[in-house]
UniProtKB/TrEMBL annotation:
Keyword ATP-binding: no
InterPro entries: AB_hydrolase_fold (IPR029058), Peptidase_S10 (IPR001563), Ser_caboxypep_ser_AS (IPR018202)
Gene Ontology molecular function terms on file: serine-type carboxypeptidase activity
Superkingdom of the organism of origin: Eukaryota
PROSITE patterns cross-referenced by the UniProt entry: CARBOXYPEPT_SER_SER
Family: Belongs to the peptidase S10 family.
Source species: Tricholomella constricta
Taxonomic lineage from the root: Eukaryota, Fungi, Dikarya, Basidiomycota, Agaricomycotina
CC per GO annotation: fungal-type vacuole
Entry EC no(s): 3.4.16.-
Name by which UniProt lists this protein: Carboxypeptidase
Biological process annotations from GO: proteolysis
Leader sequence residues: 1-21
């Protein structure tokens, strides 16, 4: 049906294409709307003059771009660009933004998918890929998944950790993931900010701070929910890994503040986003506390990197903590790059000798051979690049053939570093959210050295929310997975008196590195599902 749809559209609206059977090889895009829309399109007598209907912002987007055609049909706008077809979505409150949407059929053949771009004004373009839930999508919550870096693509989450398929076979193929998080949730994977993954900027625009990145993410969500209102009523969760521990509190804060403004002065077409929880996975959120935990983790953690906790390496590392914390304190106090960059340089430097040990810093149980495994120590991340750069996959996703995909963009990484963004206190944004009823889950695989679980548990314990006292007084209890009954970790939760998953919950995931769903796929799905359903992670009362 999809292939036929394409033929119809091509032959009717682009008369240079002749519907003789297969004039459209090279891409397999589909205009959204299914059979019905195609039927309606087949009745189109003449192509409308696209430019008549364009807002100034959209004219700007088209400025200087040839090889682009647009038309309007039945209240929807369509665009053909570089041989790829998209539906265009815009809403008046966002004059500078539009969504360009296509419908791929990769990775999970049995669910609805959308992918494409959020275009911001004429220069920023953020790539997204959405999968509907494998079960009752109309009731399933909506989740935004973000990887970190900064500068790394969310396709790591998609193809390596928790998406509907896993990268396989050197990147020639993918395999079905039975533990995908779209088992019970609708999920969006977003590459942000610009220049990450398939996202791009036309004229060298950069985004280099989390608060600024948050504005585009908010615009993206509003446009998405306006186009797909069927996902706007359910609870919404933002889940982010690694540097996402910095992004997500900022993004959640933007959403929450915008929700509040809308509560006071509703704007037609702007939707309240039902932000239900923030999920931080092996994140960097409160560097003052987390950086200081590094010696404790590498010298006395469950997988010690140095044999002797009192040995010279451990002493040298510990001796750096006071300076690191002093610098971060001044970063917290002045919140400017002049104080935050020095903190970042000094504190990151503590990892220097640890990176020379031949270990995988994301999973210290493993060795890392960078010549074989790549800089990020997982050969699968190289396979992802192969797969994403396959012209067939690009075309199916609505990605311009000229775009080159990299798992992580080090220029973006440096741009954030030069703002000292990663040393800011993102934890300070969370108490207001938690106190206003937005739940917080922080989990960490216990073999990760980069954002270790000890530091994560400590900052959650310090978090100055309504649940502070209760959390401090609460002990961890075993977390047993519901299906296989496996001891998968420990959970410490405050709020809900053991009848819910908690309002502030920390989970230490056993035998998992930085990317928990990769190492413990069944347990990770158990954790995620119980969290979004707000049922306890343990049957024992968490006090
Ligand atoms: C890719 O995997 C699918 C099933 O998972 C299989 O049918 C197909 O033959 C594989 N293709 C290649 C090129 O390995
Ligand atoms: C705690 O979470 C529940 C949902 O489980 C929510 O209804 C409640 O408002 C939250 N409590 C507070 C004090 O925010």
């Amino acid at each position: 049906m999809k292939a036929i749809g394409l033929l119809l559209i091509s032959s009717l609206l682009f008369t240079t294409h002749n519907a003789n059977g297969n004039p459209i090889q090279g891409y397999d895009q589909v205009v959204l709307g299914g059979k019905e829309a195609l039927q309606r399109l087949s009745n189109v007598q003449s192509e409308l003059s696209a430019t008549e209907y364009l807002s100034d912002a959209k004219k700007a987007i088209l400025k200087g771009k040839h090889n682009m055609q647009k038309w309007f049909h039945d209240g929807k706008e369509f665009i053909k660009q570089n041989g790829l077809l998209y539906e265009l979505v815009s809403i008046p409150p966002f004059k500078e933004h539009q969504l360009r949407v296509t419908e791929p059929n990769l990775c999970d053949a049995f669910v609805k998918q959308y992918s494409g771009y959020l275009d911001v004004a004429e220069d920023k373009h953020l790539f997204f890929w959405f999968f509907e839930s494998r079960s009752s999508p109309k009731d399933a919550p909506l989740v935004l998944w973000l990887n970190g870096g900064p500068g790394c693509s969310s396709s790591t989450g998609l193809l390596f950790e928790l998406g509907p398929c896993n990268i396989a076979n050197d990147g020639k193929n993918t395999t079905h993931n039975p533990y995908s998080w779209n088992t019970h949730a609708n999920i969006i994977f977003l590459d942000q900010p610009v220049d990450v993954g398939f996202s791009y900027a036309d004229d060298g625009t950069t985004v280099n701070t989390s608060p600024v990145a948050g504005k585009d993410v908010y615009a993206f969500l509003e446009l998405f929910l306006n186009r797909f209102p069927e996902y706007s009523k359910q609870p919404f969760h933002i889940a982010a890994e690694s540097y996402g521990g910095t992004y997500a509190p900022n993004f959640a804060n933007v959403i929450h503040q915008e929700n509040k403004k809308l509560g006071l002065a509703p704007v037609p077409q702007l939707k309240h986003i039902n932000l239900a929880s923030v999920i931080l996975a092996n994140g960097l959120t409160d560097p003052y506390i987390q950086m200081a935990s590094l010696p404790d983790y590498v010298c006395e953690g469950p997988y010690p990197v140095y044999d002797d906790p009192q040995g010279p390496e451990c002493q040298a590392l510990r001796s750096k903590i006071p300076t690191c914390q002093r610098l971060i304190k001044s970063c917290y106090q002045y919140d400017s790059r002049f104080t935050c960059v020095p903190a970042l340089l000094y504190c990151n430097n503590m990892f220097g000798s640890l990176m020379q040990l031949g270990l995988n810093p994301y999973d210290v149980r493993r060795k890392c051979d960078r010549s074989k495994d790549g800089d990020l120590c997982y050969e699968q991340l190289l396979w992802i690049e192969t797969w994403m750069n396959d012209p067939k996959n690009k075309a199916a996703l609505g990605v311009n053939p000229d775009q080159t995909f990299a798992s992580c963009n080090m220029d973006v990484n440096r741009a954030f570093a030069m703002q000292g963004d990663g040393m800011r206190n993102s934890a300070r944004l969370l108490p207001e959210l938690v106190n206003d009823g937005i739940r917080l889950l922080v989990y960490a695989g216990n073999a990760d050295m980069m954002c270790n679980y000890i530091g994560n548990e400590r900052w959650v314990e310090q978090l100055d929310s309504k649940f502070h006292k209760e959390f401090s007084a609460t002990k961890s209890v075993p977390w047993i997975t519901a299906h296989s009954g496996k001891l998968a970790g420990e959970v410490r939760a405050a709020g809900g008196a053991g009848f819910t998953a908690g309002n502030v919950t920390f989970v230490n995931v056993f035998e998992a590195g930085h990317m928990v769903p990769f190492d413990q796929s069944e347990a990770a799905l158990d954790l995620f599902t119980r969290w979004i359903m707000d049922t306890p992670l343990t049957l024992r009362k968490a006090t």
